[in-house]
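Researcher: Hi, I'm a grad student and pretty new to this. My advisor asked me to get structures for two proteins we've been looking at. I'm not sure of the right format, so I'll just paste the first sequence and hope you can take it from there.
Model: That works fine. Here's the first sequence with its structure tokens right after it:
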Amino acid sequence: MTTLTARGATESRLPPLLRLLILTQLAFNIGFFAVLPFLAEHLGDTIGMAGWLVGFVLGLRTFSQQGLFVVGGALADRYGIRPVVLAGCALRIAGFGWLGYADQAWAVIGAVLLIGFAAALFSPAVESEVARQAVVREESGDGSRTRVLALFTVAGQAGAFVGPLLGALLLSADFRAVCLAGAGVFVLVLAGHARLLPQRIPGRERVRVRGGLGPLLRNRRFLALCCAYGAYLLAYNQLYLALPAEVERATGSQAPLAWLFALSSLLVVTAQLPVTGQVGARLSLRRSMAAGLALIATGFAVVAAALPAGRTGTAALLPAAGFVVLLTLGQMLVAPAARAWLPDLAADGRLGLYTGALSSVSGLVVLLGSAATGTLLDTGLPAPVPWLLLAAVPAAAIALLPRDPARA
């Protein structure tokens, strides 16, 4: 009840544009996660794709999204967020509609690329404007920027929690119904933004597309933040790689994964704002990120410490649950702090470009690191070793954080 009261009080003080953008994140994730969790099974079982091709398609989606975030961010700086968001929503509608009717590999690949590129347009536009508005609000004395960005994170996690429930409900019909429902969500988002999103946002100056990458690549503090954030994302992705392997070892089944994922989402939805409120008043952005990375490293170490006992059964899931809790608590500290730090590191007028670049560079770190992690898990090393090596990644990332943040 305290969390809901605090959240309601925060929302009541937000200006209409920030409310719209935060609700946008909620709607985006509902529509997206109504489809994504069921895509691999549809491709393998319904269409009959080989396992390697399913993995390739899922990788293409990630690449077309994360890898092109920098493009979407640059376009948002140049043309403003309204046309970029509306174009992204239109492409997402077309992509989901196409995917629902695609029954051949080339059609699936085309639809998935369209879905990923749509997110590469609208996500950095929305995220950069939320960060900019949060800074404006902080400078006018209306509250901490990290609290606004924490609320943005909560909205995203709530959407990620509700979306699969909607998809599972519609899956009783067929996968096409799931895709069309996802498209329907984005139709509503498109209509709402066409009506409510301002043509011009005060204080946001448009810049030319060229000329931003050189200063960005020379910005050592920003690149250091990208690498540290990439290490966090690599650790977070172990929810989908190392954790399933451990759950399978402990119980002989993947079924408990759903409960562990639900635990992670519920923790963010219920505890993100209280955690941010307590930490934001006491720690600088750098110290907040460092504390989050340390918690994540501890989560890996908990599993590593328990593995030599070789326990199996339901009780053997306790270390995995501890890992999920510590990883999620670390996420609550790292993600809002990283977004709040970006406006201090970005060049004037290029917040969209830097927001997109953060995702693209950190996504590259995850791509390379995930390949190494997969190899590590398959090498036959003693069970605790991979988890200890994974613990070293976020621990080492603490040293990469910029040493002189512009604000406390």
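Researcher: Oh nice, that was easy. Here's the second one.
Model: And its structure:
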Amino acid sequence: MYIDKTFSAINDAYCIYLCIFAGDISNYISVMRLLWKYLDKMRCFRKRLTIPFLGILITCLLFVNLYMEDGYVLEEDKRQLRETPIHQLNSERYVHTFKDLSNFSGAINVTYRYLAGSPLPRKRYLTIGLSSVKRKRGNYVLETIKSIFDQSSYEELKEIVVVIHLAEFNLAWCESLVQDITRKFAHHVIAGRLLVIHAPEEYYPVLDGLKRNYNDPEDRVRFRSKQNVDYAFLLNFCSNLSDYYMMLEDDVRCSKNFLTAMKKVVTSREGSYWVTLEFSKLGYIGKLYHSNDLPRLARFLLMFYQEMPCDWLLIHFRGLLAQKDVIRFKPSLFQHMGYYSSYKGAENKLKDDDFEEDSFDIPDNPPASLYTNINVFENYGTTKAYSSVDEYFWGKSPSTGDFFIIVFNKSTKITKIKITTGTDDRQNDILHHGVLEVGEKVIGTKKGKKCSTYITLGEFKNGQVEAQEIEHKITFDIECVRIVVTASQKEWLIIRSISLWTTQPPNQ
């Protein structure tokens, strides 16, 4: 009798298990009712033996169910993975690069080949990175490397490291080019100033069958998508080599002492937020980043590698990091020199008309506060005249006695001052009548600070004024520079640039 009831209990328990295993949620209430009904029956015979047995049996069945379900889900995931379209996932190559994209702060797991040189333990001030592939016509990478080193002084060379990413899958071409590089720049390789690296092809994602955004042909989509990955791997490698990182292309000519000029600009931006500083208006040339932003930028390029070209993606990147406006400096420090594009060898005659071969004469513009009583138009404020960025101050018709004052944070020795008003498209908005003055002994007023005494250095002519060798004419350390309007004018006033040169080195 007990055996019959026990087998009946087992049968009921198995029915309960089948309901659960079926995964039908609507049956769970019925299951619970069946359990309580059964337990009520159990009062009729020896519960001490059967109830524990039933509990253990149901528990075991549930564990078996979970195990089988996990196995089923795992097999289902594998099946779906196998059926995923090829343009989304493709075997192990894709997994190498993208499996850790959820960690946006760390480096990408790529094993690089060192083709020449190796990193030194000491961090430098600047890493200059460029990526190069085999071109159908022309090759400019050797000229670019030569320009970087030739245009740098011995002291500047101590602060830079150049990283060349040969992003070509044709290894024979890579080996041939490495031989040329090591033969011509052996001393720079030995000194740790020049590294040549290669990211193996198996780390690249799918490059065929990608989305054809902007109706680009397939080979164009492949080219620009691969270029995004090339740059991502380059940025990833360079993320811990220096304080700052400069992106160049492999067909660029540099201006003289570009590093010193760039350091002046970086020093002038201390205390202000920036993501990207631009020293050329072309492509992915002359773009400066903080090195600690490189891991995020590398992952950003990987995530959207098939969406658009790299120079478009970098605009979105700085915008997402809350730098709304372009911060570009003139004169440009880098010039595009390649005649044939790396894409199909097409002609590429783009030139940066703001480039100057000798950029060492970039102004210092020491930290200062700016004041004016001229009625400012919209957001064309005073600071825009004092910045080396391509922007300007714009005020409404000034009157006699109106002023524009620069008050330095600390007194300084100035060697040269150059002020330009008006623009090419608004040539009448110049200062027609005015003088340039320098002063000392700063005092505070209700409208800001000013100096109590001034000395005139020159008058504006055709909207410009320039004073040189000021340190030989002025005996005191200058605390203020002032522009004074000497006659009213109907035209508005644009102060395009205020450039100051000091005797202080750029790192002070």
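Researcher: Is there anything I should tell my advisor about the second?
Model: You could mention this: The chain is about 35% helix and 25% strand.
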